Amino acid sequence: MEAFNCLYDRYKSLVYGYLHKRLRNRAEIDEVFQDVFLRLHHSRSRYKSEFPFEPWLYAVLRNSLIDHYRKKEKQYHDVSLDELEVTPTALQVEDKHNLDGLLPENVDLSKKQRHAIELRYGEDFSFEDIAKTLGTTSSNARQLVSRALKKLRKIIKPEDVT
């Protein structure tokens, strides 16, 4: 237990900061933060000490975040973006990875294409992670991103980009 407390004290800021950049509100951050450390605690017997701890922690952190996105996607599957209410706390967090407002409104992207683009270029997800998040295959995730980029290329000309 003492070793776990030491790891918690050492990495809590790193985990919290990582989540703060990717999630909108404090309740979500706290939920995933707790999940990360619970998973670490429950899977401690599977950790092999001959390997570095940080990559293992990052894998657990990333998987918890992906699971959170999946759960959230299922909850809000039938809700349009216009129906979602923005809270003042969400506006106070600067998110350099948020692509809202950067993608032109006149681009006819499906909801999945827009989400795939945001995950790929906003969150730097791999195609495998995008597939897991969207509940599809890796090749379909590649296809979603590719088709979305083709549509964007038709609208955005190189001279328009500054």
UniProtKB/TrEMBL annotation:
CDD domains: Sigma70_r4. Keywords: DNA-binding, Sigma factor, Transcription, Transcription regulation. InterPro entries: RNA_pol_sigma-70-like (IPR039425), RNA_pol_sigma-70_dom (IPR014284), RNA_pol_sigma70 (IPR000943), RNA_pol_sigma70_r2 (IPR007627), RNA_pol_sigma70_r4 (IPR007630), RNA_pol_sigma_r2 (IPR013325), RNA_pol_sigma_r3/r4-like (IPR013324), WH-like_DNA-bd_sf (IPR036388). It comes from the Bacteria. Pfam families: Sigma70_r2, Sigma70_r4. GO terms for molecular function: DNA binding; sigma factor activity. Residues 7-73, 109-154 form the RNA polymerase sigma-70 region domain. The keyword rRNA processing does not apply. One of its GO terms (biological process) is DNA-templated transcription initiation. PANTHER family: RNA POLYMERASE ECF-TYPE SIGMA FACTO, RNA POLYMERASE SIGMA FACTOR HI_1459-RELATED. Belongs to the sigma-70 factor family. ECF subfamily. This is RNA polymerase sigma factor.
